[in-house]
Design a protein that fits this description.
alpha+beta; 7-stranded antiparallel sheet; about 20% helix; about 425 residues; about 25% strand
Length: about 425
Amino acid sequence: MSASESIFPPNPQWTEAGTSQVPFWAYTRDDLHQRELERLFYSKHWCYIGLEAEIPNPGDFRRSVVGERSVIMVRDMDGNINVVENVCAHRGLRFCRERQGNQKDFFCPYHQWNYSLKGDLQGVPFRRGVKQEGKINGGMPKDFKLEEHGLTKLKVATRGGVVFASFDHGIESFEDFLGSTILHYFDRVFNGRQLKVLGYRRQRIPGNWKLMQENIKDPYHPGLLHTWFSTFGLWRADNKSELKMDEQFRHAAMISTRGKGGKNEEVVSGVDSFKETMQLNDARLLDIVPEPWWEGPTAVMTTIFPSVIIQQQVNSVSTRHIQPNGHGSFDFVWTHFGFADDTPEMHQRRLIQANLFGPAGFVSADDGEVIEWSQEGFEQSPTKHTVLEMGGHEIGNTEHMVTETLIRGMYAYWRKVMEV
């Protein structure tokens, strides 16, 4: 039992009405974290797995994660995409150790049980026993059936080149899960053009996984925390913006159009992150070229609860995969991509602008740090609560950034599903 749990009764209550105050213990309890995994990652939710472009050929595979469970995304010899749990049906080994590769089948190194790329068991060494001195010794029982001992198969949904999966085979369709509002912003990026993977970044952030969902549902902080956003006008309070949610408030889109930047006293006066004299040594970082699929906004950050963020910040596009690791840590995996029909100039532009993001990014390094500091405060004083009252107590779509409505909406959904 952790120190933070020891001061609580077995089931602490969230007694306040609404979600304008979130108890610190929502981020610190191991038992609550286990309930989150079961209710938010392993049932009734589609979780991000990867991009089809990561496994273009038959036999290609890539390891991924659903919650804290290792899974494998693989394209079989028929060209279909399967997702199977990375746990041998025999003795429970995580048999696949490579991050990605190409194989004609899977096998467990412990006892060489062999599986097809669809997850079916197709071979067991010494299944019929071993013949010695005229008799058969050992072997599996006569009623042992290969078809009853395959890998755990997840239900798979693909759309626009993106792969989602669920352990829950009774889950609603992916389209219904997103809802029409958020589906529009998903399709805005993944509009059928062939994707091209540009590279990966990964980091382990010592904070509760929900904090990253909060961070990308929080338009209040970017123009205050991030020097790049406040100084160059990429994302700050005086930009034209909208905030939208699905009907259950679990997913959201933050939509913004870049402003002029510079010194606007109303939004940067007294803001420490604003650096009026800051100049770029490499102008290509802000060499922004409008693209037809933007439909106007220069940035849309879409959070698909609970597992992924779809980022379009100027010409840089990526997925950000949230992978919990206990109540106080998560792995954060960035997949930067472009499109197969990008010009060489646009390809280079996307790579250069990707330096704004990732664990050492000019913008995103700030987020990892403040999430760590938040978790330290929660662990230190778990009986306190956060205050989410910017913009009032209501939950709803807005046409400005000075609000925490999206976070309030997420916790309204969280409380319902978690029965807190």
